[in-house]
Every structure is written in C-alpha cells, then in structure tokens.
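Researcher: Sit down with what I've pasted below and flag anything odd:
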Amino acid sequence: MKAFYCDHFVLPLPEGHRFPMSKYKLLRERVTEESQIELLVPDAATDEQLMLCHTKEYVIRVVSGKMETDEVRELGFPWSEEMVERSRRSVGATISAARVALEEGAAANLAGGTHHAKKDRAQGFCVFNDCVVAARVMQQEELADQILIIDADVHQGNGTAEICAGDKSIYTFSIHGEKNFPTQKALSDLDVELEDGIGDDVYLDCFRQGLTTSLNESYPDLVFYLAGADPYEKDKLGRLKLSK
C-alpha cells in the first residue's frame, strides 16, 4: 500500500501555539515501521486544481498572503509561505492517493482531512478542502464519476457539505458529535449526529447504518474516508468514548 506525507514542510508557529504539528512527524515514523507501506512525497496542488473547489479570489488571497485578519483568526494559525506550500502538498497528497487507489484499490494521505475549508474561506486549521479538490480532479480527468466522502472526524465536515451542496456527483456522509465544533452545522447528504459520551457499540451501529445508506444512495466509483482519531475516549476535546 502507498501512503503520501508532507510533514517535512514545517509551519513556523509561535511558541506555545496549540496546533499539534508534531503529530504528523510521529505518525510518519510509526508508519515507517510497517514494511507493507510505501511512503511517498506528493506533488503540490496547482492553482487550477484548487480552483475546481475554491474561488479564484480566495486562492489568490491565500497564495499572495493577502488574507484578512479575521480570516487568519478563523484559520487558527498565521499566514506564511510555508503554510501555503504545506497546504498545497496536503491537497496534492490526497490527489495522488486517489489516483493510486483507483489503480491499486487503496492508498492514504497521512495529513489530509481539511474538511472545514469552505469555498471562499478557511476555518479550523483547514486552508484548502483536500477531498473535494481531489474528487473534482478525478472527475475532470474522467477517472471517476460518482464519489462518496465519508467523514468520521468527531467534528462535522461543514466545509465539505457546503461546497458540495447541490452537486449530485459527490455524496457527503458525516458522522460527528452533535454538540462539538462547528456550532453552526451545514447540511450533508447524510448527517449522523451523536450525543456526548457514546461508546463503541452504539457508534458502530450508527456508522454501519450510515455507511449502508450512503453506499446505496451514491453508488460510488471512488470513496474518500476521513479517519478522524478524535472520537477516541482520551481525546481532550472529542467528547465521545471510543476505545482503540
């Protein structure tokens, strides 16, 4: 199996900043121990690819460093050239993984899942929406037609839902904490909202039902799966109680 990573494109964050960038390096080191996985560095997504999902004006603001103060605040970390490059690479990793998955059955991006990024705005540490960009690149290249995005992060994929609203070729399924971020939820094709404190059995029942529904309604050629780790019982902000 092939996995793409971009943890060596480090963001220069202020001392004490709460975004845990080290987790990507630690994940790569753990994956390196798995001999069945081939680690690869992705190409960066181009402006043209990003604009399949985001507005031209937004892409230009990000790339040129002209984001407004409130935009940077909503993103959660400061603008830098390194931030732009890493964001491009993260999207490029999902594009590359999608191509490999269509050829070999499965592939992974170790630093994707930027599902809060909206068509014209960043949010919650998400600059560009990697899954939607990759989905539309696959459609543009006629490698896939119908696409399913399964989002198992504990937070709703609101950016993904907003961008894909009305797009019948991309089905969005999000299973998330009802009372967790974002406060203002979007409308996915299928939303499964969970109460605080839900454990393994109830979660898996809800997930199975949602998976069956989404597969039956979308008939996908390609599936993007956002494998959120934050429903884990020891996650400080997750509010769910899933065991490993």
The chain has eight helices and seven strands. Residues 15 and 97 are 33 Å apart (CA to CA). The first strand starts at residue 2 and ends at 4. The beta strands are 2-4, 38-40, 107-109, 147-151, 170-177, 190-194, 222-226.
